[in-house]
Write a structure and sequence with these properties.
The chain has 137 residues and is an alpha+beta fold. It has a single domain (24-136), classed as OB fold (Dihydrolipoamide Acetyltransferase, E2P). The chain has three helices and six strands. The protein has helices at residues 2-21, 37-42, 109-117, and strands at residues 23-26, 49-59, 66-71, 74-80, 95-104, 127-136. It has a five-stranded mixed β-barrel with strand order 2-3-4-6-5. The chain starts with a helix and ends with a strand.
Length: 137
């Protein structure tokens, strides 16, 4: 009986430690089914609400006001809804989950230059993503 109690306590502690490592930003995620970034980029639908999972490849080093998400060799530039939240500048390489909407538009030249000056690689892409919520694990 003692072993069961100790095992249970260790399991609860491990779960709590893992949950404590997840940081959330913006609105809580709603549980949308994850989609493939490759599929989104192949057939982008402006305004479509989706969930993406991947690894943070780059983060704005000025404020943390954007990130670039990578999934299976594909990447997308991610901004945050209404500039209402930021992510930690040291988030590169960490897995994350995002929910929000697909944005399809040609970026303005000055916007591209600004983002490139901040280190963005996908700043000139026609397809981007506006996150309403982010979980970094």
């Amino acid at each position: 009986m003692k072993r069961i109690a100790v095992g249970f306590a260790l399991g609860v502690f491990s779960f709590a430690a893992a949950a404590a490592e997840t940081k959330t930003f913006g609105k809580p995620l709603t549980g949308l089914k994850p989609v493939s970034l490759a599929d989104v980029l192949a057939k982008p639908e402006n305004g479509k609400q989706i969930r993406l999972e991947g690894t943070i490849e780059r983060v704005c080093q000025n404020k943390g006001c954007w990130l670039e998400l990578k999934q299976a060799g594909k990447g997308v530039h991610v901004t945050f809804e209404a500039y209402s939240f930021f992510v930690p500048k040291d988030s590169m390489g960490k897995p994350c989950v995002l929910e929000g909407r697909v944005v399809v538009r040609d970026p303005m030249p000055e916007e591209v230059e600004h983002k490139k000056a901040e280190g963005a690689a996908a700043a000139a892409a026609r397809v981007s993503f506006e996150a309403t919520g982010v979980e970094i694990r």
